[in-house]
Amino acid sequence: MKFSIKNSLRSRSVKYGGYATLFSAAVLATLVVVNLIVQQVPAQIDLSGNKLFTLSEQTKNVIDSIEQPITIYGLFSVGNEPAELLEVMRRYEASSSKISLKLVDPDTNPGFAAKYAPDEGGSLRAGSLVIESGPRWKAIDYLDLLNVSYQDPYNPQVQSYAFEQRITNALMFVATGRTPKIYQVAGHREYTLDALGLTQMVENENYTIESLNLITAPAVPEDAELLFVLSPKQDFTEDEAEKLRAYLERAGHVLFLLDFLPGSELPVLSGLLESYGVRYGHNAIVMEGDPERYYRSQYGANPFWIFPQFETHDITGPLVTDDQVVLMPEVVPIERADLVRRTLEVTPLLVTSRNSWVRTDFNSSSMERIPSDRIGPIPIAVAVSEQPTYLDDRTLKLVAIGNSQFLSPQLNMQMIPGNTNFFMNAV
């Protein structure tokens, strides 16, 4: 049987065999993760590097907008109060007369912990928080207050605290009653956040999630904070594209995950993206020739699984600072279009090395570069922004990433912390 690159990309040995060791590790890690995380808090965190006790300008603006009293409850066992978290809570209390702090011992007051538990019959663990204002409240589990790396599944590492991010998000919710809403576009065989195992992670950022079928909906709803288009396998209609365009033109935010679809024709979707400065190479695949930039395991090398380089952007900056990596399997080129209107700013986020190439001729079975291949570096993710002249407080934003499998729970790609962090930074 003749070797085929297209067929090899669909084979179970490529998709699953090369990452089997991570799957086994993931199962073991799940059994011990909570104990390992709790044991290392707070010893392994550089407090000065995290600017732990300095509230950001964004948080100060949120606090200044608070009109009704808010109480931050800390569920701390007496004698086991987490000092760093308690200090941050006191900073919030000191910053506004509308914010008060109360400590509740869950051992002596189990009813309080059960009242705010996310599951009926459950209870919040010690170290968790509850932020409450009138009838509205938000519970934050202690583990959700930590940023954890699972790069070594046997030894998950607490990299930093997420105290301010979680508390400020909860303050915004209880103060306004408004939760930002994300709509997942449906109707083109897209993935969902549930299928990718990301629903809880996104909801932890204080978003609610709904599905949106652009064929039946008259328009993108006015309350849409963000649209997800997660790996569509079929083209959009012209009417759907116009609804997306109308949303973007009113400073909408859209995140596209775009996959390799050999032999497919997507003129409407491709045309929409081109009109915002993005070329989607759905009939092409990127191969990496730098051995330091593709995945290697006991099963061999895989030039289709690429460790891209980061370009400078707010989305990638935290990953560079934390020395994280992203692993992209079977990625397609996502590049700047030839014609881009001058009000748009198109910025590469991820690029391959100079030793990479783009393959469009799948009659060739060569795993080496052939004359028809286009030489790298190749952008595989871009961000687009435009400041509308009629809206001063919101900017059009579009992020396109040439892969969805970097988030695949079946491949355990989320064991690489840079993968989920890159996605969440783009949200």
What's a concise summary of this model?
The chain has about 425 residues and is of the alpha+beta class. The chain is about 25% helix and about 25% strand.
Helical content (DSSP H or I, runs of 4+): 25-40%
- From the spread of the alpha carbons, the general shape counts as globular
Q: Quick one: how many beta strands?
A: 22
Provide the spatial order of strands within the biggest beta sheet.
8-7-9-10-22-21-18-15
The whole-angstrom Rg is: 23 Å
Largest sheet: 8 strands, mixed
Beta-strand content estimate: 15-25%
Terminal CA distance reads 44 Å
Low-confidence stretches: 10-51
Supply the number of helical segments. 13
Which structural class best describes the helix and strand composition?
alpha+beta
Mean pLDDT: 84
What does this protein look like?
Strand 13 (294-297) and strand 14 form a beta hairpin. The chain is of the alpha+beta class and 427 residues long. Strands 8-7-9-10-22-21-18-15 form an eight-stranded mixed beta sheet. The chain contains 13 helices and 22 strands. The longest helix has 20 residues, at 20-39. Residues 10-51 have low confidence and may be disordered.
Features:
about 425 residues; eight-stranded mixed β-sheet; four-stranded mixed β-sheet; 22 strands
Topology readout:
Elements: H1 5-10, H2 12-15, H3 20-39, H4 57-64, E1 70-75, H5 83-95, E2 99-104, H6 110-115, E3 129-133, E4 136-140, E5 146-149, E6 157-161, H7 163-176, E7 181-186, H8 193-196, H9 199-203, E8 208-213, E9 224-230, H10 238-249, E10 253-257, H11 267-275, E11 278-280, E12 285-287, E13 294-297, E14 300-306, E15 309-310, H12 317-321, E16 328-329, E17 334-336, E18 345-351, E19 357-359, E20 374-375, E21 379-386, E22 396-401, H13 417-426
Parallel strand pairs: 1-2, 7-8, 7-9, 9-10, 10-22
Antiparallel strand pairs: 1-3, 3-4, 5-6, 11-17, 12-19, 13-14, 14-16, 15-18, 18-21, 19-20, 21-22
